[in-house]
Each structure stands twice: as structure tokens, then as C-alpha cells.
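ok so I'm stuck.
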Amino acid sequence: MEKKKTSFGTSIGFELAAAGSAVGLGNLWGFPYKTSANGGAAYLFMYLACILLVGAAAMLAEFIIGRRARANPVTAYKEISKNCGWFGLAVVVIPALIMCYYFVLGGYTVKYSLNSFAGNAGMFQRFAGNAGDVILHTAVFALLALAIVVAGVRGGIEKTSKILMPTMLVILVVIISFSLLLGEGVSEGLAFYLRPDFSAMSWSGALSAMGQAFFSLSLGCGAMICYGSYSGKKVNLFRSTAVICVLDSLLTFMVGLAIFPALFHYAAVSGVSTAELGMGGMGLMFITLPMVFEDMSVVGSTLSLLFFAMAAIAALTSVISILEVVTQFVIQKFRIFRTRAALLVTGICVALSVPVGLSFGAAMNGGSLMALFGRNLLEVLDMITNTILMPVCALFACLAVGWIIGPREAVKAISPERDGKAHRLLGLMLKVVTPLLIIVIEIFGIFDLIMPLDNGVRRFSADGCGIVVCAYGILLVCAVVYFAFLKNSDTGNNSDELQVDALEAERVKAGPSRGWYRPE
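replied:
not stuck anymore, here's the structure
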């Protein structure tokens, strides 16, 4: 019973879990190649500025919504206003969509970890095209996440985060230490990463940095609302938000220190130019880095194991947070035992991830199996969730706290002893600054989809328009379902979850449980 208690036991446990949600494949996969494509250090500085201006305030707003209601996102938004509840449903649907492709990418990190000493160079297309292998490793990764979530908030998510987050930090320190001692090319890599040239930063690069900061912190997908609802009264959300943003920024910064010296060293000793390495493309992590590691012989195999094990850890700490969002809602709304709720959600998402993995694998091998809007399903789902839906939901969280709840009441809900300065600053950020920046991200993200650059000229894309329509169609469906079925019904809270956990514990003691629902 204690292991499944619906709250974090300590502030550090809460902060490490939330930081684990923030630090994921977006930091290890997305950040390095986007940094390479946008001028190096200038992009890094822009990214850190966006964490401060966009990320921190939006994260605090989501924590406030969760802490205030002590419930799943649907109930949390209903506590603000019954007419706002459909946004809560949207932030339950978004992580379900994300899991359908995140399980696949997590499977890739597991495969690369296990295959490090056999050699990962040139394996990407072969593995992507092997449907059975992709499905197997996707299922293995999903089962790891399932086991953690089944153990509960305190016994699973918190304990795991306390182990995995420091482990990831240690691995990064080891890789950085080795990369900095490689010799030739290292100084050029450090200069590229740490010496800013803002003339190399374009408007599109600045927008990419804002989007990366946004995605990096897991905003707009319900994770921080869910974790906020589990935060104990002793957790200082102001301090925790600062700690999480610092941890996320630090680990992201360290990823660059680990990767760029090694990449430039490889370019120097192999005679291959950095332009030929494809550093600015999505293949940096799964295609370019394995070549770099293989060139280092046995030491490189060890570094490959450490790096991809770290990637698997980062993917795992992120995916358990979004799995918990959906599981929490299913438990509280339908009174299903945690074990079965998590198993149900994981099973559905793994089943849906199969066509996503097959579509992605076909695309990586020059095919177009199960393509949609001219893209593979993984890319489509990524665009729908990260480019369009997550900014919309984070924007509404800011507006809900800033304009409906009000900054003064929000501060009181967090810490009654705070003075007026706190609510005035929070009000300025949530009412004006952060919403405006998020709107910029949304507008230009959509514009890039509908009017992408084609040989330097903007041209209308019917496929891009289709993705935008599909994304907003999902929001419309969430609104219809909410107002038709959920607005006037009980959607549960954390107290209901405690009762379900207690009954599940009794069933376990009594022997094999029967039935999925809590008896009335």
C-alpha cells in the first residue's frame, strides 16, 4: 500500500521525476542536430534564454493546475471551470499519441545499447527494415516503462528517478571526460559549441530554439499537471520549477560537451568534413555517432554502450511520465486497478506503435509503407503533438492560471506566505510574456508546415495543411467527447485513486483478483 501512495515522498524525488520527464530523447536526439543546423553556440544561448522566458513560467502554471485540484488533468481543468475540462481531455490524448512513437524510438535505444560491442555503424537501415526486431525491442522498452508505472508513484516513478537520473549524470561525465581528451579536433568542437556567432542565427533558428525548449520540458502534454497533483504540501513549487529547469538545461548542455568534441575529432582524423557527417540532420544520433564510436575501437564500443544506455534511460524517464498521465485518468475515471489500467494503456499504445514502427522503417529504407500526408507515421505524430497541440495546451495552461484563477490566488495555492512581488511577476509572465512567445511558436510552426521552403521559395503544401487540419480536428473531437460525456460526470481525483489502490492491495492479499472495476 505504501509503495502505491499517490504522492511523492520527498521534494528531491518529485524534482528528479519531473526533471526525468523533461530530459528525454529531445535532449539527446533533437538538441544536438538542431544545434549543428543553427550555428552551434548561438543556438545554445537562444535555447537557454527560451527555457527561462517560456519554459519556467509554463511549467509552473501546469504545476499549479495539478496541485490545486489534486486530480487528473480533466478534473483539474474542470476545477477551474466546467467549460475548460475539454483541454484536460486533450492533454490526456496527447501523451497517448506520443507513446505510439516514443515506444518505437525507445526500442531503438535498447537495440543500440545491446548491440554496441557488435558494432552499430551502418545498422540503422537494417534494423529499421527488420519488422520483427523493431517490434520486439519496442515491446521490451514498453514493458520496462509498464513495470515502473505499475509500482506506483512513490514505489515506482520516484524510486526509479532517484536511481536513473544520477546514473545518467555519471554516464555523461564519463563520456565528456573522454571526449575532451581525444586530442585533434577537440578545440574546434568546443569553439563551435561554446563561442557564439549570432550572425549565424536565423529567425527560423530562433523559432527552433523556442520549440526545442518547449518540447524539452515536456510542457503541454499533461505530465507536469499529473506530477503537480502528486506533489506533497512540503514541495515548494517555485523552488522545484527552478531546480528542474536548471537540471534540464545542465544535462542538455552536457550532452553537447559530450558529442561535439568527439564529432570534430572524428572529422579531423578521418579527413571527412563536418558538413559530410550530416551533423545537422536527424540521423546524427543513430547514423553519425555510431560511425564515430566504431572508429575508436574497443573504447568506442564502451562509449557507445554508455551513450545509448543513457539514451534509453532518458527515454524511459520521459515515457513513464506520459504513461502515468493516461494511467492516472483511467484509474480515477473508471476506477480500474492501477496494474490493469497501466497494462491496458500500454497494450493499446504498443499495438498502435506497430504500424508507426513499420512506417518509419520503410521510410528509412526509401519506401512509403502506411505513409500519411506524404510522411511516415512517426513524423506525422511528432508534428501533430509537438509542433501544434503541445503549444496550444501549454498556452491554455498559462492563460487559465494568469486570467481565470488569477496570479494572486495561484501563489496562495502554492505558498500562502509569499509576498506580493511573487504574484506580480507571475502575473506578468503568465498573462503577457509567455503566452505571446508561445503564440509565436505556434503561428510560425504552422506556417512552416503549410508554406515550407522549397529551393528558397515558400510554396503551399497540401500535406502540411492536412497535418494542421488533423491536429485541430483532434482538439475538436476532444471538445465534442467532453461536452457529450464528461462535463457533468464524475472524472475522479487522487482520493479515488487511493481507494482503488487500497482495494487492489486487499485483493492481492486475498489471492488472485477478479474483475477490473472497484466494487461499489
